[in-house]
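Lecture 7, part 2: worked example. A protein chain together with uridine-5'-diphosphate.
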Amino acid sequence: MHIITVVGARPQFIKAATVCRVLREQFPTVRHQLIHTGQHYDAAMSDVFFTELDIPVPDHHLGIGGGTHGQNTGRMLEHLEQVLVQNRPDRVLVYGDTDSTLAGALAAVKLNIPVAHVEAGLRSFNRRMPEEINRILTDHAADLLFTPTATASAHLAHEGIADEAVIQVGDVMYDAALFYRGRAQDMSRVISELDLAGQPFILATVHRAENVDDAGRLGRILEGLGRATIPVILPMHPRTRQRLSDSGLRAADNIRIISPVGYLDMVALEMAASRIATDSGGVQKEAYFHGVPCITLREETEWTELVESGANVLVGTDVQAIEWALNHPLPDAGPDRGDSMTPYGQGNAADLIVNHLVNQI
Ligand code: UDP
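Predicted complex, written out as structure tokens:
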């Protein structure tokens, strides 16, 4: 039995770390190869995750990144096809919604290699998001769709995908949050390095194209964050840093911009933050997993359960709405705080995925 996993971007490293570990532990005889497309390539966006999260060294590194969506997806497709033809796996496994996800799914399905999609069925219903197009196309190329929530499964049913192909397993990011939380507490030094011990602060991340490629939206987000009455720690995605420098926008003094951090430092920051402001899909859920109120800097979210429960407030890029949400009390919510809602499964999504994969082949 032979599985090939295709990853390329930061959130995929975190998701794949969990599934790879369970596969290794439970089915050591399964042959597993990892392809890194190179979409995220530098030390802070890639290497640190492989080291910290014990992800095996990729068997193939395609070194494709830095181009446009079309350039990246096209080049990945060509190179992935070569690797798949040479190796002929029984199944290809892809994660999430990036160009690497779509290229992996498309390359495999055209060679009649079955595709499994982890984090299937998410929809923002905003077709201007490149991620939305990647998700829809990948879901319709896959024959095994692992969904994180009931909402995601319902979206797939609505799109006519056969029930037998859809398996609701919960969210592998929840597994990761539970597994690495203790390690983050023991190993991360970020709180003392940033002099934050005992200090209230807001953790913020901004990287979505719709927010950072538009100087008006980026400017309003920075202005809103600048109105927080406590410090804002902003680990800055390289794309955002580039756009900030291109636009000439300046962040207010209470916003502390730092380089992107590794996952363990990120978890430590999330757990210590008074609240989290983000446009990241993963960080919205991690806020909930760690019981921290979340303010989402978008007009819509794929993770609607959190908005419905009050754990997440959608503020878009309205300066007053951001200011209000940063400085007023919000309800506590999270699996650890007596919230009865656990829409992301039991923290065993990776076990369920691995068992399905192995039994299907
Ligand atoms: N993350 C990280 N360091 C950072 C910012 C984010 O480790 O400086 C992690 C975060 O904890 C989450 C994942 O990266 O697990 C989210 O990735 P990202 O926001 O890039 O993508 P999205 O989830 O929006 O697809």
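The mean pLDDT is 95. The chain has two domains: 2-171+345-360, 179-337. Keep this in mind for problem set question 3.
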